[in-house]
Amino acid sequence: MRLQGIFALAALCGLLFGCASTMNKVAAEAPINWSAEKGKKVLLIDPDVELSELTAGGVTEPRADWTATGKGFIKSDIGSTLTGKGIDTVPVDAVTDPHEVQLVKLHGAVGIAILQNAMINLPTKGKTLDWTLGPGVTALRDHYNGDYALFVYVRDSYSTAGRAAIILLGAIAGIGIQGGTQVGFASLVDLRTGKIVWFNRLISSTGSLKEDKPAAATVQNLLAGLPL
Is the pLDDT of residue 12 over 60? Predict the structure, then answer.
């Protein structure tokens, strides 16, 4: 799905859930009793992050500098959060192996499908968390000697001055115009089975990944309810 499609999804979610919301799900058939799984390792997969500028015409233009800053904050904040909980983590930075790159992309596609299912229940899925990345994730288990993998996907946009002016004019005319939007989700995957055992969605019209403290707040929301 193109980035514009993500913003359309975010707009629809905004109508359903408000300006800022999270959606937390844990797979009932695969609960995690972390105290009983002491010693297990969690792979922190290099986050799939992109920050963009939203122009007056509604076009999103990726910014490599913003993206690098935002990804850095997310990685640092996730690592410190889990380390603070005493979780044994293994950073998986700069994924280059073709199969592992495809797994990151697959997570993005599956996560978007989960978001869509949250609004329009698919007949084969219902409301339960019954999703998987497939047996191919065992490659991550073997490569990095991990038991679970935490995947993160974030798309964040920021309105230009021209876009902000159009939003203001629209508000005066009583017309709602989409501004910058923060859309993201995180998944915890059991590397023994490929099952997604926890999923959380974040959609917000506020926040910033370009600054330390707001980025930390975003990560806190993304990890809300993480069963670790």
Answer: no
pTM given for the model = 0.82
Using the predicted structure, report yes or no on whether residue 70 has a pLDDT greater than 60. Answer: yes
Backbone phi, then psi, for 159, in 5-degree steps?
Answer: -70, 135
What pLDDT does residue 17 have? 42
Q: What are phi and psi of 59, to 5 degrees?
A: -95, 135
Cβ proximity of 7 and 56 under 8 Å: no
State the pLDDT confidence band at 15, using cuts at 50, 70 and 90.
very low
Could you tell me which of 100, 116, 121 has the C-alpha nearest to residue 185?
116
Neighbours of 105 (CB within 10 A): 12
**Per-residue DSSP letters for the chain?**
--HHHHHHHHHHHHHHH-SEEEEEEE-TTS---GGGGTT-EEEEEPPEEEEEEE-TTS-EEE-HHHHHHHHHHHHHHHHHHHHHTT-EEEEE-S--SHHHHHHHHHHHHHHHHHHHHHHS--TTTTTS---B--GGGHHHHHHHT-SEEEEEEEEEEEE-HHHHHHHHHHHHTT-------EEEEEEEEETTT-BEEEEEEEEESS--SSSHHHHHHHHHHHTTT---
pLDDT in tens, 76-124: 999 999 999 888 999 998 888 899 999 999 999 999 888 877 665 555 5
Domain boundaries, the chain: 3-222
